[in-house]
Write a structure and sequence with these properties.
The complex is a heterodimer.
Chain A: H1 24-37, E1 44-48, H2 56-59, E2 63-66, H3 72-82, E3 87-93, H4 94-100, H5 102-110, E4 116-121, H6 151-154, H7 160-164, E5 170-177, H8 181-199, E6 204-210, H9 214-217, H10 221-235, E7 239-243
Parallel strand pairs in A: 1-2, 1-3, 3-4, 4-6, 5-6
Antiparallel strand pairs in A: 5-7
Helix pairs in contact in A: 1-8, 4-5
Chain B: E1 4-7, H1 8-18, E2 23-26, H2 34-45, E3 49-52, H3 56-68, E4 73-77, H4 79-95, E5 99-105, H5 121-126, E6 136-138, H6 143-160, E7 163-169, H7 170-174, E8 176-179, E9 207-208, H8 215-235, E10 239-242, E11 249-252, H9 255-270, E12 275-280, E13 282-284, E14 300-305, H10 312-319, E15 325-329, H11 338-349
Parallel strand pairs in B: 2-3, 2-4, 4-5, 5-7, 6-7, 11-12, 11-14, 14-15
Antiparallel strand pairs in B: 1-8, 6-13, 10-12
Helix pairs in contact in B: 1-2, 1-6, 3-4, 9-11
The chains are: A alpha/beta, B alpha/beta.
Chain lengths: 248, 353
């Protein structure tokens, strides 16, 4: 018998708690596979956020710390300074990283902290039941923007990748998504590259992954992927913003 | 070893390095800035890492990460900065990460002043963050004691897997005194086999965490913490006391205030008044049992603190209604005078109203 596919050794056997159609599972898999393929799973130390992926410490098969809301880059900094030879990553959502934790991620990038951040952007607060996020699109209805996000009232959604790409210490910044097999492959490539950035000692690396929240968007999983393509990608263009190898 | 003349804040840094602290994360604030200043030079020279964080919040979370990763680490600040750290401290207590936190207390509330204060007593002893937790808390009254207890704090933190707080008033940080760096009594410390160091493929993953979504599990975690705190209450009470058996008046004070009280006590004794004293060194656990040693001649207790009267609550718990409790307090960065304390002692000895 030939094994054509198996679950990554970078994941534990604990079943995910994620909602049906949520893309956190795919992103977890890509991170786990990247750590295994780079041969650094046993040297990896991850930091879980507060939000939907708060239980990520149960799923990644490596040492993990659970951070306070938004503080994962600071916690990862502490770990990396103690263990500069280990591979340290944070896994954060958009409420965690783009709202309450902006100071921590901006300054981790500024210091050129040699950590890798996986930033999952689904344009909403999922865990708390679908409130407006800093990444919520203009006009998007949430439980705290019942009339749709009003730009005059609370501004436009924040583009984290573009902002961090202006920082010298950030050596790899790329925005990807996981709506199709082709895009999943591209996302995997970017995540691996972000870990390589750390392993080579280049500096801070972040991959922003556009993700879906069928439950709180009120859409089926397939419709949610369509919504992501039609609404999120035009505002959050996919692509690389900085790469240590290309001098950009 | 010979004595050296050191400023309190610099002595904190020197003591931490001597105790094997390898990582310091901090943010400048008066009157404790000399701690990061001193340690930014001395710690790298000792093979450690100093990192100036973008905020007090980031600094305490870096401590969470570094302590969780198994390192001896610390942060230091003054009152408003310590307020910012409270979120991190409750997470650290919940995840049982050893670390040392130094607070050179200044006047409050809010931005307050930069002069010495003891008005963070509640925050230090009752826990400023959310949830049921306790931090071992030492209040040194001299630079020598500051050095001794900073060094001891690292051992206690590792022994109990708990944050240890040094609550000193700003005066202790700013004055200079001769100090000697003595090695603390060696204690057997458990291995940090829970720390995040990378599995190396040799063990199951370690998780440093304070989240327990099942109520039953969280209660169990809390009961374990409670048992640890009880052990600390049984074993970690430290205080100085004298003259309790035949005292007419017993003064209670800690830190800088206790030194001023001692001056007032000498003046009272010269006038023929018998005055005893309890000087808590550990603010939590508090030396409640010391109050049982107060004899029958006592007419009252005088608590002195640079606050509106915070430790006085613990004095009342300690004396359990046996004697009247009086309070002499200064606020906002004002320091009490021996004269005002002496006047209160005389009033109590003569039968205060």
């Amino acid at each position: 018998m030939t094994i054509v596919y198996e679950k990554s050794k970078g994941l534990t056997d604990v079943p995910f708690h994620y909602c049906p159609g949520c893309t956190h599972g795919v992103i977890h898999k890509l991170v786990a596979e990247s750590l295994v393929e780079l041969g650094v799973l046993d040297d990896a130390i991850g930091v879980a956020p507060v939000g939907c992926s708060v239980l990520a410490y149960k799923y990644f098969n490596c040492d993990m710390q659970e951070a306070a809301h938004g503080r994962a880059p600071a916690v990862a900094t502490g770990i990396k300074r103690v263990h500069p030879d280990k591979v340290v990553f944070s896994y954060q959502g958009d409420g965690d990283l783009a709202s309450i934790g902006t100071a921590e991620v901006v300054h981790a990038a500024h210091r050129g902290e040699k950590i890798t951040t996986i930033f999952v952007n689904n344009a909403i607060y999922g865990m708390t039941g679908g409130q407006m996020a800093p990444t919520t699109l203009v006009g998007q209805k949430t439980t705290t923007s019942p009339f749709g996000r009003d730009e005059a009232h609370c501004g436009k959604p924040i583009r984290i990748s573009e902002m961090l790409a202006t920082i010298d210490g950030a050596k790899f910044i790329e925005r990807v998504t996981v709506d199709t097999p082709a895009n999943i492959r591209k996302a995997k490539k970017a995540i691996k590259r972000a870990f390589e950035c750390q392993i080579k000692g280049e500096g801070f690396a972040l991959v922003e992954v556009l993700s879906t929240c069928p439950t709180n968007w009120g859409l089926t999983p397939l419709k949610a992927l369509e919504w992501l393509r039609d609404n999120m990608i035009p505002y959050y263009p996919l692509g690389n913003f900085r790469d240590f190898g290309e001098g950009k | 070893m010979s004595k050296v003349l050191m400023k309190g804040n610099e002595a904190v840094g020197a003591a931490a390095i001597k105790a094997g602290c390898k990582f310091f994360f901090g943010y400048p604030i008066t009157p404790s800035s000399e701690i990061p200043e001193y340690i930014s030079k001395a710690l790298p020279e000792a093979g450690g890492v100093f990192l100036q964080a973008e905020s007090e919040i980031a600094a305490i979370n870096m401590v969470y990460g570094a302590g969780g990763a198994g390192a001896r680490c610390m942060t230091a600040s003054s009152s408003p900065g310590i307020s910012l750290k409270q979120e991190g401290i409750t997470y650290i207590a919940g995840a049982e990460i050893p670390c040392v936190i130094v607070n050179m207390m200044r006047g409050g509330p809010g931005l307050g002043s930069i002069q010495p204060s003891q008005a963070d007593y509640y925050q230090s002893t009752r826990g400023g963050g959310n949830g049921d937790y306790r931090t071992l808390c030492y209040a040194p009254s001299s630079i020598q004691e500051l050095v001794d207890y900073v060094m001891l704090a690292f051992d206690k933190a590792d022994y109990y897997r708990n944050p240890v707080l040094i609550a000193a008033d700003g005066m202790i940080g700013q004055i200079m005194e001769a100090v000697e760096f003595k090695d603390p009594e060696p204690i057997d410390l458990p291995p940090k086999d829970w720390a995040t160091t990378g599995t190396g493929g040799k063990r199951k993953p370690n998780v440093v965490n304070s989240l327990y979504l099942q109520a039953e599990e969280l209660q169990e975690h809390n009961k374990n913490l409670e048992a640890k705190y009880k052990k600390m209450e049984e074993n970690e009470v430290v205080y100085e006391a004298f003259g309790l058996e035949d005292a007419e008046v017993v003064c209670v004070a800690y830190g800088t205030t206790s030194r001023i009280v001692k001056t007032a006590i000498k003046q009272a004794q010269a006038k023929g008044i018998k005055v005893g004293m309890i000087r808590p060194i550990s603010l939590w656990p508090y030396p409640y049992d010391a109050f049982k040693k107060i004899g029958d001649k006592a007419k009252g207790i005088l608590a002195v603190e640079m606050s509106q009267g915070q430790m006085v609550d613990d004095v009342k718990i300690g004396i359990a209604g046996r004697l009247p409790v009086y309070f002499n307090g200064t606020q906002g960065g004002m320091v009490p005078t021996p004269g005002s304390i002496l006047a209160d002692i005389e009033k109590i000895a003569g039968g205060a109203k």
